Amino acid sequence: METEPEPIVVKLDSPTAVVEAIPTFVGFHPRESLVVMCLRGPRKRNGLTMRIDLCEPRHDRALAADLARRAAIDKADAAIVVCYTSAPDMDGLLPRTTLVDEQIERLRRRDIGLEEALLVRDGRWFSYICAQDCCPREGTPIPDEPSGPTARLAAERALTGRAVLPDRGALVASVAGPVALRLVALQQTYERVDAAVAGEIADEGLDPVCEGTIALARDAFGRYVEGRRQVDDPEAARIVLGLHDKQARDELTTWAIDGHADELIAFLTDLAQRTPDCDAAPICTVLASAAYQHSDGALTAVALERALRSDPSYRMAWLLFAMLDRQVDPDEVQALSRDVRRDLRRRAG
């Protein structure tokens, strides 16, 4: 496979740069949300980016305290706070000023500095903390399209099938299964493939079928890396059904340590979209694992939600959910994947 290109560095050196970059980091354009972006070290490298729906004002203190706690766990030295809302000003103050002030104070108590505190509303950004000419009271228009490195990053992801989505609902829809006539057609395909797999197991045993799943998935993913997004329905069904074998599933979760993250996530997302709900737990959990290992918490969460709707007792999905809630570092999840790979190779040897 080809080597990956050098990562694109996005500099958050102005409020406009911040609000242009956040949708790319989050994966969609936030609405009625609070975003806290953690920054680490003297060069203020981007760490954890948290987005949460705006709650009722009576929950402001609890929300701010929880986000500050999570920022501290992420070892943030500073943070950027951005509120997205269409609400109007109240008594001469920007909307949700109380929440933003509480968030700033909770960060301060944990020795986390503040870089920016912004409101995004109606295509403009406003500052909660600056009253100088650089931050006019009427707000500053946000460009319709991002520029510079942010534009290149968004374009690169779009080319691999991971374009920035309009909202969280679109993110949920991106991992949803087929519906209506498409669902009926795929259910018929899955039934035929399932019968064929059962016959293979009866004739050859579990291990050759598992190896076949992995080989087929590797070939299909290789086409994604080459830019050829070509997987037909029977091929997708064979891979997805094969992931009910835990060894095949675990093997695919280790692929996230090999690079080509955008192509891998696009490939797994395509498979999830072709999977009826009754079979969705394994593929959505593999997708969640890949997203987690590459710091995409929003996609991890929605993929796990679908996995657990499909099978509320699916243990690996619950394990990943617990790790996400406890903010286990993605690097640690990758380290676990390396351990899994070593164990799989040892067993194979």
Structure description:
With 349 residues, the protein is α+β, with helices and mostly antiparallel strands. It folds into two domains: 15-165, 3-Layer(aba) Sandwich (Cytidine Deaminase, domain 2), CATH 3.40.140; 175-348, no CATH class. The protein is 55% helix and 11% strand. The chain has helices spanning 15-26, 60-73, 97-109, 148-159, 168-174, 180-204, 206-225, 233-242, 246-253, 261-273, 280-293, 297-310, 315-325, 330-348; strands at residues 33-40, 45-53, 78-84, 113-121, 124-127, 140-141. The protein has a six-stranded mixed sheet with strand order 2-1-3-4-5-6, sandwiched between helices. A hairpin with a 4-residue loop joins strand 1 and strand 2 (45-53). Helix 6 (180-204) packs across helix 8 (233-242). The chain is elongated, with a radius of gyration of 22 Å. The mean pLDDT is 93.
Largest sheet, spatial ordering of strands: 2-1-3-4-5-6
Q: Topology as H/E string?
A: HEEHEHEEEHHHHHHHHHHH
Note the gap between the termini: 24 Å
What would you call the structural class? alpha+beta
Report the portion of residues in β strands: 5-15%
Helix count, per DSSP? 14
Tell me the radius of gyration: 22 Å
Q: In percent, how helical is the residue content?
A: 55-70%
Number of domains: 2
Number of E-state strands = 6
The biggest beta sheet reads: 6 strands, mixed
Mean of the pLDDT scores?
Answer: 93
Can you tell me the residue ranges where pLDDT is under 50 for at least 5 consecutive residues? none
* Shape summary: elongated
